[in-house]
Amino acid sequence: MGNSATEETQQTEGSVIICGAGIAGLTLAWWMDRIGWDVLVLEIASGLRDEGYMIDFLSSGYDVAERMDLIHRLEEVQQPVSEVVNVNENGERVSEMDYELFRQLQNERLLALMRGDLERELHAALSDDVEIRYGLTVDEVQQDEQAVDVTLSDGTRESVELLVGADGIHSRVRELVFGDESQYLRYLNYHTGAFIFEDESIRRKLDGQFQNLTVPNRTIGCYPLQDGTLATFFVHRTPNAERPPSPCQTLKQRYGDLDWIVPELLEHCTDVDSIYYDQVAQIELPRWSKGRVTLVGDACQAVSLLAGQGASLAMGGAYVLAQKLRDDGPIEERLNRYESHMKPEIQEKQAAGRRAAKWLFPPSQWHITVRDTALKVARYPGGSHLLKPVLKMGTESVVNGI
Ligand SMILES: Cc1cc2nc3c(=O)[nH]c(=O)nc-3n(C[C@H](O)[C@H](O)[C@H](O)COP(=O)(O)OP(=O)(O)OC[C@H]3O[C@@H](n4cnc5c(N)ncnc54)[C@H](O)[C@@H]3O)c2cc1C
């Protein structure tokens, strides 16, 4: 069992730059500060953001948040979800996924959170000793046996004992230290987009439900949020990995022919900063560290939305890294222990995610019918055992025993 927040001891360990104030970066900053490092976080965005869609927060993420005494705060910002309703183009219910069953299978340790809310709570939990500089990135990295010299995008130079790239799937630190992204990114043949908007008429139509429309190779979801807004997401299959210059134009082209509430949803898409759009991809890297530079979260272990849990695993990875850094021995050895612990778990979850693809985002009407039939059978008494292996798949915590 890991250390609770109150059991930590204070000692000066050295200084670290964490590039990226997302889920992994903020979690790591909290733990590194806690165990006595001087922490500087760099974030390319100008501040905290609300973009993205709802995440199932469970397993490793839940365990780490509990050790940070954050669960109570996260419970307050969770979204109320009891089921996910699949509808057809007329808006009629065709099947549903019982979120309560999922919650039971996780021993009630599951929260439906907006990514932005999780980020905000992690940020609020940081002590004043952690410095965050927004609007900045890393331009140059040089290292020797004693230190890493980092040149920031404003020209400032910093010398630290450790540099961590927590800057997401398109990591700049990874590019500078390990090489071009194309060597490490496994494109999974889908693109995804998500945005948050306001619309009273759509809110009434959803009637409080999380609804999904699936047609072959395309899925659109929409759900009401606690604060009166709505969130929507789109996932479609495409062989073209390249991210389009205008995500909204692409969504309009790809989904403009569909009924249900899709035309109204698309009217709210205006290429402003608040749209999240990206390839669905995984990161596979032969080594996660080089000397005094290491990676955490999606930068080295992205599992993709097919596997879910990206944010939970990012918190798990950040926790394991901080705990392994407390061990004795040269820093390179401690970083190796972090990687050896994490990598097999991540590889398993990535493979499970790839296997789940055709059921999550069915490629044909036949796959959609099989999915809906299985979901219907699961509603009958005793039928839920059908779904248990799927809902439990790959959700083991990476922080067990650490
Ligand atoms: C705005 C946003 C919306 C997202 N929405 C979704 C979603 O809807 N669905 C989904 O499956 N996943 C989404 N993700 C990814 C998901 O949150 C991550 O898979 C998961 O949380 C892993 O966390 P991470 O901290 O490793 O990476 P991220 O959460 O991606 O965090 C990386 C952080 O590094 C920052 N950063 C990036 N480049 C640089 C740079 N060069 N220099 C400094 N900082 C940099 C980013 O702004 C971000 O704050 C989103 C990520 C972001 C940033």
From TrEMBL:
Keyword Oxidoreductase: yes
Location of the FAD-binding domain: 15-326
Keywords of the record: Monooxygenase, Oxidoreductase
Stored Pfam families: FAD_binding_3
Protein name (database record): FAD-dependent monooxygenase
InterPro entries with a match to the protein in the record: FAD-bd, FAD/NAD-bd_sf, FAD_aromatic-hydroxylase
Top-level lineage group: Archaea
Entry keyword annotation includes Repeat: no
Record GO terms (molecular function): monooxygenase activity
